[in-house]
Give the backbone structure.
Amino acid sequence: MNLGYHQSKTIELKASKKEDLLLALDLLKQGRLVALPTETVYGLAANGLSSSAIQKVFAAKNRPANNPLILHTDSILKAHKLLDFSQVSPLIEERFFKLAKSFWPGPLTIIAPKDSSIPKEATAGLKQAAVRIPNNSRTLKILSGLDFPLVMPSANLSTRPSPTCASHVLKTLAGRIDAVVDDGPCPVGIESTVVRIDKDIVEILRPGMFDKNQLEMCLEEKILSMQKIDDVAPSCPGQSQLHYSPDVFEVKLCSDESIDERWSCDDVIIARTRDFLAKERFLGPRPVNAITLLLNDDPARYGQQLYDALYRSENSPDKRLSILVPKDTSGFTAILDRIGRAAS
Ligand code: TXA
Ligand code: MG
């Protein structure tokens, strides 16, 4: 009896093993679903030119069909072929090359008019496609062995936090996907910056490690950063509020003042180390059973650790999480965006 892929066992592969990478490559050529490492988060890869493979991705993630996917490739030339600049001002293509040459491979996703070869399922019917070259040597190797791009949404069930290690992938997708390639923890830990370049003004739709200043310096023009989520038209469906949510009863965002009342409860507290220690000097130690997850003071390291902390918070018996929101916002834009959505 064919139970379909939903009931299949997820094969655990090692990125360091050549034969495992070949198996991953083979599965992808067969139109199957393989979670792959990237520098940002693990992605759920499938043939980006195959409507049926893409539909399996939506089903496995339980993702709304109106939320488009990012196409991943391993060269600027291949990425360029996924886009069609023939109907727009030459300025748009110039922007593409400037950004691609400066930031790829790396955590930047570029949105521009799509080529007709891309199936409508990948872009959820939109006329623009999102493309990116990820910076992970094993995944680049796989991409270089394929004659099609890979769609790779984050490899988690829709609305849950993105996975930054293979065990996070298995936590929500075991049995729903064919394989996962384990390459250890992702070094960036926050999803790519998403930037749309085909309008008069370039716009950041999702903040990430590359920030507005870096993109402006590269393009030598002013760009818009995503305003408060409520203010923007839903041009980037991933801006929907319910996102990145750990499986707990309650997530509270706490200021330096409002954390006081959670201090002696059994809540899990996630905090920047420096902020926590300053607080502890006033309030004394937390109860022995209370779980406290301390993240690095440096925003890059904090970002790398955040989703793992969200997944760990799910292990608490009380299932209540308080996040002490970092005070200093310099370098924290993308992190504050994700924390805000985890709590909504
Ligand atoms: O770092 C990343 O970008 C990871 C890794 C695996 O590459 N991928 C990722 O994919 O975060 P996903 O599907 O979880 O998020 C993609 C975001 C969504 O918010 C989606 O709505 C937006 O990009 N997006 C994709 N294509 C779009 C398009 N054509 N127009 C507007 N937004 C788009
Ligand atoms: Mg996602």
